[in-house]
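Page 37, top half.
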Amino acid sequence: MILNNGDVLTLSLDKSSGSGFQSKNEYLFGKIDMQLKLVPGNSAGTVTAYYLSSKGSTWDEIDFMFLGNLSKDPYILHTNVFSQGKDDWATMGGLVKTDWTQAPFTASYRNFNANACVWSNGASSCKSDAPSSTNGAWFSQELDSTSQQRLQWVRKNYMIYNYCTDDNRFPQGLPPEYRMS
């Protein structure tokens, strides 16, 4: 449902249907922002997602998924990066089941902003392969040492699964995109 003169989009899920949307443009690279309001209350078994995906039978994808929860439990943010159309994601073993009596589950999205190069008919809207210095300062940003320490703390205290270290999943060795120097 589109609300507030097109400023807010809500998506609903019930036992027989779900919903989604996609941008009108395809992007080569850029900075993309979106505000999400997650499903309130008991939303166990639902996923509110925001993701970037290429097209084709072997696609690449970057996912930001918020796993539903029991009332008053924290939401779990699941991130995923995969290539060539292969990586199932961790589901905590399906231990918590969806309570469909709480349906419909509704999430809201607003303030989509893409500071990005549009890809259309095999060409980019940007004049070069690098973002302009005025609009693309984010392209060269890096975490400072304090931010790196905070990220490590979050990983240590909140990361529940990292498939880049899942030897059972990749007995033949990690794919090239997961190997870090």
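Page 37, bottom half:
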Amino acid sequence: MSSGNRRVFFSVSGVLGLCCALTAAVVTGLPLWIRGTALCRTGAELVNATGPELDKFLGELSYGLFTGQRLKQCGLGGRASRFYFFPELQSVVPTALHVTIIFFCGVVILFSSVATGFFFVNAFGRPYEMLQGPMGLYLWTFICCVSSGLVMTLFASEVKLYHLSDRISNFNEVHFVFQTHSESYDRCFWLFFLVFLLHGINFLLIRLAGVQFPFRETKESDGSGGADLMY
């Protein structure tokens, strides 16, 4: 492949990597990962509410990795409040798992930025060759792809297996019991899924640029062709 085409592929990969880094950084701090409704079961059972009457006892709930907000409805009007995972909810959420999710979000942000720099340097410069072979170009993209997949998997596990919405809804409640009525993944979760897909596309672009997969045997080439890539 000509150096011009390779420069184009690496430039596109660099732009995608930059978009991934910025997107991951923004969505990590936004409280738009889960959106749902919580039923005030105590109030509904007291008046035997059914059908449309249940709407008076349905509150709203939305949260992310650091903060969220809830609107509780118990038949007498809504009670809106904002909550924070740290330090308020440390006693009711699986803290170790939650911190692990935030850690992998940081890994995605960091290594997406690193991959972006490597792609652009390879596109427009002649970087110092640190390792033999094309391992590095795939390595950073692989780390980003796996980390973003782990973020989604671990967050989904925390929400479903640990009933995170129920725990948040019943936090600091003494007289009322709330039950999750509905919940769905909000835009930030799906944006992280987009980050995962974009890193997968980068894998394809690296291959289209003529870089062999690390596990494939390649013939040794003379000259300084390998020095055109930053590893």
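Margin note: Residues 3-213 form a domain with the Butyryl-CoA Dehydrogenase, subunit A; domain 3 fold (CATH 1.20.140.150).
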